[in-house]
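Protein entry
_____________
===
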Amino acid sequence: MAPDSPVSVTVTPSHRVGDLAVHAPDAVRTPAALDAAVQQAHRRAVVAATSSSPVSGQQTDARPVPKATGATLISRRQDLLDRHRIRVETTAGGRRPRRPGPAVGVSDNECVRVELLPGSSRGVVDADPGWLSQATASQIGQAVGQAFHHAYDERDR
């Protein structure tokens, strides 16, 4: 954690928010300040996780050399091609799959809301200003973490 960071985040290998801790609750008493602090902490955690990866800076083994072969033209029957057309799939419960787009998660106390950006593990954090002005550091961290986990669960459905 950087000394000037009011929030620290640990991320999973897929860059999802794992643990979130608030170190300076007075610095995140407004929804905009909380969102900015969480965004900054997430960005720092992703950079730290990426830079500590052994793949990022040095190569440990020689890269494999691809072996090219000539292209072969295969004639397909129409019935085989028809089998691969895009179809609307249904899940086992008979529901249509969730459309891509933002996923929303709400904390258990319903005071924090996270909207995940499409195709990203990062999200926009919004909190009830009245609750945020009186909440403790642990309450804020717990509620934001719950909202992120609920949003990830919503997206994974």
Remarks:
- The chain is about 35% helix and 15% strand.
- Residues 1-52+100-157 form one domain.
